[in-house]
Each structure stands twice: as structure tokens, then as C-alpha cells.
Amino acid sequence: PPPGWRDVLLKSGPAAFAQAVRQHKGVLIMDTTWRDAHQSLLATRLRTHDMERIAPITAHAMANAFALEMWGGATFDVAMRFLHEDPWDRLDRLRALVPNIPFQMLLRGANAVGYTSYPDNVVYEFCKQARKHGVDVFRVFDSLNYVENLKLGIDAVRQADGVIEATVCYTGDVSNPAKHPKYTLEYYLDLVDELVALDIHILGIKDMAGLLKPRAARLLIGAIRSRHPNLPIHVHTHDTAGAGVAAMIACAEAGADIIDLAIDSMSGVTSQPCMGAFVSALEGSEYDTGIPTESIAALNSYWEQTRLLYSCFDPGVKASDTSVYTHEMPGGQYTNLLFQAQSLGLGSRWNDVKAAYTEANRICGDLVKVTPSSKVVGDFAQFMVSNHLTGDEVVSQAATLSFPKSVVEFFQGYLGQPVGGFPKELQAAIIRDAAKIEGRPGASMEPFDFDQLRRDLEDKWGPGSIRDVDLLSAALYPTVFDEFQALRQKYGNLSLIPTPLFLSPLEVNQEIQVQLEVGKNLIIRYIALGPLHKETAKRDVYFELNGEPRIVSVDDTSVKPEVVARVRADPANKNQLGAPMSGAVVEIKVAVGDKVKAGQAVCVLSAMKMETVVGAPADGVIEALHVAIGDNLGA
User: Fold this and answer.
1) pLDDT per residue over 526-535, tens digit each?
2) Strands (DSSP E) along 7-95, which ranges?
């Protein structure tokens, strides 16, 4: 492929690269199609297979781009949890195909790519390995704009020799301070000053909900440019309200150097603004992006067809929604939360969920909302809708309610300190006797023992089977990694299977070809399905593999176990405890005969990545338990 901005980085280093970006005439763009676009539109389900197919063409078509955003954020978790593929392998495979364009990732500061805080050495090692495997630019943000957490991420990227894009998360409306008095222009300028003092390379403005209106964009970017004339500015937004292209043009005109956009067919609504529209609008002007519209059209043809493959994950957001200016839900969360709500049986109450999200944010003190703080507000909102609670009822009854685990840990301080602090009375009622963390959470954590983790994992999966990057996957997501390893040992590398066959079963006599590696292909034909073996709930499946017959015995998951009628709690009996939400029992914390106090944890339920700690309704003794770990319960 032709030379690109990565060649500048490799030759000159991060600091000189950043200054070259600042001195560049015209506006540079970052294509988010490989990460945030599908995270925002398709529940993060885009597979490596479909990126690989278009990667060589992308290396040519987008050679003038600042970067491709292709890693981090929710992609790390979802790759293992739902796509059954290794996120590190994705990075290696795409890097080999696109050597000329910088890769950018989203790093959640002290949270790395997880939903909580980790020991410092986990974050440092993660950044070191990410840089080694091909990440060039690290967008470092904190979900509460908590500078102490940002400092850790910034230092970790610096030690890894990556490009530091320290990021301010934008919420409120700087053009209307009367309505949004907490997040004013001065608040943002002071925060930028603190970050610049940390010797960063690039400043990121992360407008995760698409709240940055054109007039506010001119005010914010113009003020930052005036105060810091040599600082490269990179702006990210979502197009939920439909004003994204206008706002990003305003940013460019006010002095932004880099703008985030998505290929046309993967843009709009909760994704990023349309690349073709932005590029065409500025073509021939002093802000010309250098990206040919013909190149965008060529890539767009591919993505139009590819997006259809993932229609089962498209929640059906068909048009702009200006209610985002009220509920302030991040674009990446909007579709995921809608998908979750539908899975939890709350799809018909989506407007109630949005209203509850607004209320949950209010009673939490008006937070900066981006993963993982947005997950706290989202879990809180679904909890309120499931239990038919208003915000005022939550506040008045907080001492007796069983809150989602993410909410409890947030009020304990596991994510850091929010702007303006916690609402003290609500905090005391929610965390009760639980420990409170003051300051940066990771500062009080013992260093993570990677050597012991390697011994434990190799005892389980075999000597020599665990790579350095596997240790990080397991440290960040222990349960998810364990399930991924078990599945890969059983089925092999599922990322090699073409997407239509990954998502849908083969038809009888259908033949497919799978490329295991260059020059090594398998031709597989599905012949027949054998009868059910009732005693084992298995069936024999008959294939031809490169013309040779094969028989595989598989579990028949369509065979339903006997339905067990469970005892339901009597709502009128305050001493009986029912499930406050539908979900699976993942932990039981008491036994029959135990003495408990009101609010003490009895068990933990999990549904769609949301965990809820169920507390005792009153002081007493556990008389009977009618559930076991693994049971699926209805509310």
C-alpha cells in the first residue's frame, strides 16, 4: 500500500508525529467503521473475518487517513464473550494487512478495557502489549473525567511509547450554561489545562452522546485553540440527534485537526456522522480531507452488503432522536441498551427506560456518562423500570432495595470520584456497611500476580498454552476468558468460519470452503442429521470433509429439560425474598440457618452483563433456599 501517517510515526516518534498532524493543511479524519460504528449500530458484533476481507483495499483507499479506530472499548469483551474469537488475534491479523495507517484504540484509563478498576501493573502491561501488537494511538479517557485515573492511563501509554491522546468527555451544553451549570466552558478549559500540563501528544474531545451542537462546537473548540495554539485537537461525536455533520464542520472551522467519521452505510443515528457527506462538503476548501470520494464509495459498496449479514443485531433505530439532548445516553450504549431491554422483556417500555435513564442520572448527581459510568446509569434505569420505581421512590427506599452490583460499586468509589462528588445521603443508603474508596481506586490495590495466574491457567489448560496476552485477557475478564478457552478447546478457531455460517446453520447438501491459513482450505459438505439419542441428548451429524466422510456427535440444545415449577415469593410477606429481576443465579452468599441483617447480600443474579446483588428484606434467619447456582429465574 502507499505510505501513510503510520510511516511518519515510525520514522519520527509520537511527539514529532503529533506536531506533523498539527502542521498539516486541511482536516484529517479517523474512520471508526471497525470499532465504534458497529459498536453503536450492531451491538459490537462485527467479526474479524469481515474486516480482513476489506482490509487490503482499506489500506489503499484510506491511505491519507489519520487512523483507523479498530480496537478497545467493548470490542475486547464482546470478541471473547459473543464472537468466540481472540481480540489479540484480531489486532495481529489486521495489522499485517494494513501496515501504513495508524491503528487507534479506546482505553478506559485506569479501567483499561474493563468495567471496573484494576491494579496499576495490569494497565501498564496491557498498554505495553497493545503497543507491541500494533496499536499506535491510545485515546485515553476516564468515564468521570477523573484526572487521577487519566494520569495512570497517560503514563502507561507513555511508557509503552504510544501516541497519547488524552481525552475530555463532553456532556451538557456549553452554549447554554443556565440549563447545564455543572459542565461549563470554564470547567472544560480548566480540565484541558490539567491534561496539557501532563505533556500529552493530542487532545481528544469525546462527545459520546452527540450533545455537541454546532454553536457549542465553535465555542469549545475555538476557546481551546485560542488557549493552546500548538495542540492537535481530535473530535469524536455521535449522530443520534442528526446534527453530527454540521457540528463536525463547525469543529473543523474552529480549529480541530482530526474528525471521527464512519463509512456512509455504517454512519448516522447512534454511529458517527457520514464520512461521504463531511468529505464532500469540505472538498476543495482549506479544510479538504485528502480522502477521494471515489474511495469512500468503493468501501461503502462493501459495507452496505456486509451490514445486511448482521441485521439480526440491528435494533432498528431508523431515524434521528433529539430526545438524546434530554437523556444524554451515549451512542454506543443507546443500541446496546435497547438490545438489552428487548432481551429482558422491556422492549415495549423503551420510552420508560429512556425516562428512567434521565432520572437515574439526576439522582446520581448528573454524571459524565460513558462506559463504565454509563453502564451504572443504564443498569440503574433498567432496575427502576423492572421494579416500577420512580427516582424519588429510589431515594426514599434506598436503604431497603437490592441494587445492581455496578451501582453499589460506583457509590463505593470503584470508578473514582465524580465531578462535584457523590450525593452523600444516597451513597450512605446504597453502600450501607460496604467499604468506601477515597481517591484513585487502583492506588490502594496490591499489584496483580501474573506469575501465579500463569501457573493457575497452565494447570487448567496445559503447560505452554498461555501467552502473555492471555494473562491480560484473564486478568481483565476472568470468567469470560475461562469460557472462551473452554469453547476454543472444544471447537477450535471459530473466527475462520464465514459469517453467514457462523450466524446461521448449514442446509442439507450445502458446501462451504474455510481457509485455515494461506494455501490450506477445507471443503465441508453437510450430508445429514442423525436421530436423537435421548439418554445423552446428542445427535450424530454427517459431513464430507474434502470428500472424505466424517461423523461428529453434538449436543442437541433444542432438547428442553423438564420445567421445574419454583416457589414464588409472596409480595405480601416481607420475610420472603423474590428475584427483583429476571436472570441467572451466579452466586449464593448464605446457607439455611444463617442469621442475616436487612440489606445483607443473599445472592447475585446476572442478566445481559448486568449483575444485581439481592439483599435480605429484613433481619432474620434463612429458613429455606429454593434456588441453586445456575438456575434461571423470572422476576
Assistant:
1) 999 999 988 7
2) 28-31, 67-72
